[in-house]
Every structure is written in C-alpha cells, then in structure tokens.
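Structure ticket #2291
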Amino acid sequence: MTFRLLFLFLIGFTPSIAFAQTTADTLATLARAFSEAYMRGDTEAIVAMYTEDAAIFPGNTDILQGRDAIRAYWTPNEGSTITNHHITPVEVIVEGNMASDYGYYEVSGRTNGEDWGPAYGKYVIVWRRGDDGQWRMHLDMWNRWSGPEE
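Resolution: structure written out below.
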C-alpha cells in the first residue's frame, strides 16, 4: 500500500514539477527581456509584457492600472537612460495559469550626462498566462532599499 501511494504520488506530481520548472525558466527569460527593453528605452516592448488589465505599484505613488497608464509610467524622460537593470529572483511559485515571483533588483542609469546608481530594491510580480499561452505580468510591485551589505 505504501509503495503504491508513493508511486501514485510520484507519477501524479512529476509532470507538474517539470511544468513549474519550465515556467520558472520562462519567467526568468521574460524578466531578462524586460531588463533589456528597459535599458533600450523600448516602452512598447515593456507594455506588451503586461496583461491588458495589469496594475503596477511603484513606490511613493498611486496604483497605475491598464496599459495606457503603464505606458506613461515606463516612457523614459528626456535625457534619461537606464544603463544597467538586473533582477535576481528569490522564489517562483507556479499554480496553473498564475505564478508569482519575488526578489531583488539593481538599476543604474544616466540623467543629463550624469551617471547615477546603482540603486537597489525588492519586487514581487504576479504573472498570468493568457489564452494565447503567453505569460504576462498582471501585478508588479517594487520599492527601493539600501542594498546588500558589503
């Protein structure tokens, strides 16, 4: 009986473990694509990574909901560029068509010829897989912190 339950457990959950790992790898790829688009200043590529009804929660501001608000937020200011953006996930949880991940980010840039950064922060993202099978950010929250201790 114990062997049978263990066998059923293993065959019942192995595909879901593989699915979760594949999804985690996909989300890591999407996070890198976000960073690359952010550094290029490619607002449309960033906006496409969000669901139609997504909401973002930047620090010290109100909730911004929908792609138009997200586009306005991520459009670079004149004279500003991002020179480095790196996300380090701590944990990814996948449940069906929803996933979440949280971790840390580092960002540096240049404003009007002056370098700044690095700045550090924490983030949490809730992902949703659409009817087209694509994972997109549905909820995206972040805030700054003092950074890793040296």
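Closing remark: The longest strand covers residues 80-95.
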